[in-house]
Write a structure and sequence with these properties.
Shape: globular
Order of helices and strands: EEHHHEEEEEHEEHHEEHEEHHHHHHHHHH
Largest sheet: 5 strands, antiparallel
Oligomer: single chain
Radius of gyration: 24 Å
Strand order of the largest sheet: 2-8-9-7-6
Distance between the termini: 29 Å
Number of strands: 13
Helix content: 40-55%
Structural class: alpha+beta
Length: 523
């Protein structure tokens, strides 16, 4: 079915627990991502075998070549360090090479207890599984770096989440599941050898260009000094996080739980438990029920990205100190001098974050306003107006886009934005940007539809009702009902920059502007 390899296992037994998924009572395939399956070289004939897919992607029967493990990692959770987290309800089956030549992890989530479960049952309810499938596909279509879901399988089990819920297993596909917390796990234990192995593996997998430096003369290649490799890894990882977070901000996405154990080195979005979309613009927007103090609020995500990268830097310090001599440095330096030098090196990289983030942030907003040049005053003033007037984030930028070719929309925005709107039009003229050119750029950067919270919740409620419907005992029919409900929504979300017939059904704001909306951790 899938051509698995298992390179992560080669790092050593301390990196994971060998553990099989728990078998489930009555697995039924609810959702299948055929486009993703095609990219992983799963044949059409294999994709038609729903019974076999149900067995494989519930964990009842592992595909040939799979070697199930639960990964070990630590993490800062809302700023508090937990040295022993790990995959408490997930099983990594292995890695596959996709059609683009990229190595991808294939992981089951909600597939049972592991050594890292910490009193959890290792299971997943249907709604969180569906949320991850829907939100990851929406982000993918919006152009945001993200893990994706291959399948959702109902388990036939009832699990306890305060109330009885239907169980499910979701299959996640990601560039990898190496996290900042993976490095923290070994740094906290003082295991320098494992830390170096993880660094070497991460570079080879995600940033192979770091490993060699071409000579100016011709084709001779040589390895970069170890210290340079460490610092480049930190810099490249930092750049990936900036790209990811700025893309979140562009579309109004709030991750909700930016702990270091949810911060992937590859720069993809993982863990969609408490995530939400911002409707009314508010820098302090928080929907996660466990984010009491707004640590991961919409406007604070950039700052948290830097904080998380600083925690990665902490983990790399022992490597710079331990292996300084490999670089031909002064071997007579005291340990204190080595530590100070290493600290200065990583701090110089972390201090780049602010300027890099600010540049990417303003370039992003300039594009949302149809400009290839940045005007920080114009951008800041618009955001301040949106904050003060509680304007809808997506609809405001969509109206701005449409106003360039629609005089009625223009008049509406002049009433809302007053002098700012006139200043924006004047700025376009000043930069010699035609309305047509501005509109074309804005169409690419401002979605016409997002997965609004009230529509996501309504869909999840309908699916839960369908699977627990006692008047319909036919599992196959329930499967069709749920697939139809989700597909209708995803059909719109997969065309986020163009209006199709059904788009209008999902563009409305919630009646209460999400005033009392809360999201919850999927566990």
């Amino acid at each position: 079915m899938l051509s698995f390899s298992n390179t992560y296992i080669e790092l050593g037994e301390q990196f994971f627990q060998r553990i099989l998924p728990q078998k489930v009572a009555a697995p039924k395939l609810l959702l299948w991502n055929s486009e993703l399956a095609n990219s992983l070289f799963i044949t059409e004939e294999q994709q038609k075998n729903s019974e076999l897919l149900s067995q494989h992607f519930s964990g009842n029967e592992l595909p040939d070549g799979a070697n199930s493990i639960a990964l070990a990692y630590s993490g800062h959770q809302f700023g508090h360090f937990n040295p022993s987290l790990g995959d408490g309800r997930a099983h990594l089956l292995g890695e596959v090479i996709d059609e683009e030549g990229i190595r991808r992890d294939v992981q089951l989530k909600g597939s049972g207890k592991t050594a890292f479960s910490r009193r959890g049952d290792g299971k997943c309810a249907l709604a969180p599984a569906l949320r991850e499938y829907i939100m990851s596909e929406a982000l993918y279509a919006l152009g945001v770096p993200t893990s994706r879901c291959l399948a959702v399988v109902s388990t036939g089990e009832v699990i306890n989440r305060g109330v009885a819920k239907a169980g499910a297993v979701v299959t996640r596909v990601a560039a990898s599941h190496i996290r900042v917390g993976s490095f923290q796990y070994f740094a906290a234990r003082g295991d320098i050898d494992a830390l170096k192995s993880l660094l070497d593996y991460s570079i080879e997998r995600h940033f192979p260009e770091i490993n060699v430096l071409e000579s100016d003369q011709c084709e001779v290649e040589k390895k970069l000094p170890f210290e340079t490799r460490v610092l480049l890894f930190l810099e490249y990882t930092l750049d990936k996080q900036i790209t990811l977070i700025v893309e979140w901000l562009r579309i109004g996405f709030i991750h909700g739980v930016m702990n270091t154990d949810n911060t992937a080195i590859c720069g993809e979005t993982i863990d969609f438990g408490p995530c939400a979309m911002m409707g009314t613009y508010d820098e302090k927007a928080v929907f996660s029920s466990i984010d009491e103090y707004g640590r991961y609020a919409f406007g604070n995500q950039g700052n948290i990205g830097q904080w998380n990268m600083a925690r990665l830097a902490d983990c790399l310090l022992p490597l710079l100190i331990e292996f300084t001599d490999e670089n031909g440095s002064d071997t007579t330096s005291s340990e204190k001098a080595k530590e100070q030098r290493a600290l200065e090196k990583v701090e110089s990289v972390i201090h780049q974050y602010t300027s890099k983030f600010d540049e990417a942030y303003y370039v992003m907003y300039a594009k949302k306003l149809g400009m290839n040049e940045v005007n920080t005053t114009l951008i800041n003033d618009l955001l301040a107006i949106m904050q003060a007037q509680s304007l809808d984030y997506t609809q405001t930028f969509l109206l701005l886009t449409k106003s360039l070719a629609n005089s009625i929309k223009e008049e509406e925005l002049i009433r809302k934005l007053g002098d700012w709107y006139k200043a924006w039009v004047a700025t376009l003229k000043q930069y010699k940007i035609t309305k047509q050119a501005a509109e074309e750029l804005m169409i690419k950067n401002n979605p016409v539809v997002i997965p609004r919270n009230h529509h996501v919740e309504a869909l999840l409620a309908r699916c839960e009702q369908a699977i627990t419907d006692k008047s319909n005992q036919d599992a196959a029919k329930k499967q069709v009902v749920i697939a139809d409900i989700v597909d209708e929504f995803l059909h719109v979300l997969r065309s986020p920059y163009q209006e199709i017939d059904a788009t209008k059904n999902y563009q409305d704001k919630p009646e209460d502007n999400d005033q009392y909306y809360q999201t919850f951790c999927g566990t």
